[in-house]
Amino acid sequence: MVRTVGVEEELLLVDEVSGEARALSSAVLAIAEKEADGESAFESELHRQQVEFSTHPCASMEELAASVRRWRTEAVRHATEAGASVAALATSPLPVSPTIGTGERYRWLAERFGLTAQEQLTCGCHVHVSVASEEEGVAVLDRIRPWLPVLLALSANSPFWQGQDSRYSSYRGQVWGRWPSAGPADVHGSAEAYHAQVRSLVATGVLRDEGMVYFDARLSHRYPTVEVRIADVCLDPADTVLLATLVRGLVETAARAWRAGEPPGDVSTSLLRVASWQAGRWGLEDRLVHPRTLCPEPASEVLRALLDQVREALEDSGDLADAERALAEVLRRGNGARIQREILARTGSLRDTVAECVRISAG
């Protein structure tokens, strides 16, 4: 049985002329809901300068690619009607004063977390892969941990922050890491232990509920899936499909290892945090911490190691050849962070950078 996969993408609403982020999510969502007759794929997010869509569970990557492109196109159409456009950027390149969304939950977050919540205008991509049980899901989480920073490097798409080059490939990773429950998680060993950890975190009173457990990868509290949350939203929709392909391959590979009785790797959470920092700092431009050797190696070699890790699973699902081509393309042209910097170097304008990214985002 092929595992289903779906993605949630957060998108930035921007002014078509100035490139600045626009607080128009309410208008965009109202248009989307009216056209969808009450069942829209779009949802609000913490800030009114962004919207999120969710694909349905897909059995094939061709189906997922079509769904991602469909909902990005729909987002552009709705935003245009509301007087804006859409960019798949994980942070706003231009200065912005984020506006917290309406709703009691968002008000609670703003009150409890202050500037941390106020500054969280970041856009991620969450990949959901189906699992047969929570026990299998936790076994997968325990075994994919070392590979998650590599996914961050691949997807890195947030080099600019408040009009400046952050010197990071994924500055979103730095901003997101301010949440108290964000980042890598320990090995749990069982579904019972996983849920005990979640209950303990919520019981502190720091977190509002289970939905605020922001691990890099977690059991979804809404669907029977493993949810990998570490990635930036990808600039090019083709990279979203590659990301989802690799995540599904990791989940299937880990589940097979668990069924075969192979234990998870003994990698400390503190080491994974360092590996994630390195991935966010350099993306594909320098060395990454190799998940097997735990030593710095060229990013291209680490990406190829990831492909080797999931090779058998991708062969079985029929995705290997497409994944090899897509990965070679990313290594050739770079991720979103490199593309943004190249556009800025060519145009000298962050406004023009956003405008070109709007075009790329639509595929």
Give a quick rundown of the structure.
The protein is an alpha+beta fold. It contains 15 helices and eleven strands. The relative contact order is 0.15.
Describe it.
The protein has 363 residues and is an alpha+beta fold. The protein has a domain at 104-347 and 354-361: Creatine Kinase, Chain A, domain 2 (2-Layer Sandwich). Helix content is 49%, strand content 13%. The chain has helices at residues 25-35, 61-82, 104-113, 115-118, 134-144, 148-155, 171-176, 191-203, 237-259, 269-282, 299-309, 311-317, 320-333, 336-347, 350-361; strands at 5-14, 42-44, 50-54, 85-87, 124-130, 160-161, 164-165, 217-219, 225-232, 287-289, 296-298. Strands 1, 2, 3, 4, 5, 8 and 9 form a seven-stranded antiparallel beta sheet that branches. The chain has a two-stranded antiparallel ribbon with strand order 6-7. A hairpin with a 5-residue loop joins strand 2 and strand 3. Helix 2 crosses helix 9. The longest helix has 23 residues, at 237-259. The radius of gyration is 19 Å and the shape is globular. The two termini are 30 Å apart. The relative contact order is 0.15. The model has no long low-confidence stretch (mean pLDDT 96). GO terms for molecular function: ATP binding; glutamate-cysteine ligase activity. This is Putative glutamate--cysteine ligase 2.
Index terms:
EC 6.3.2.2; GCL_type2/YbdK_subfam; ligase; two-stranded antiparallel sheet; 11 strands; globular; Creatine Kinase, Chain A, domain 2; seven-stranded antiparallel β-sheet; alpha+beta; 363 residues; 49% helix; 15 helices
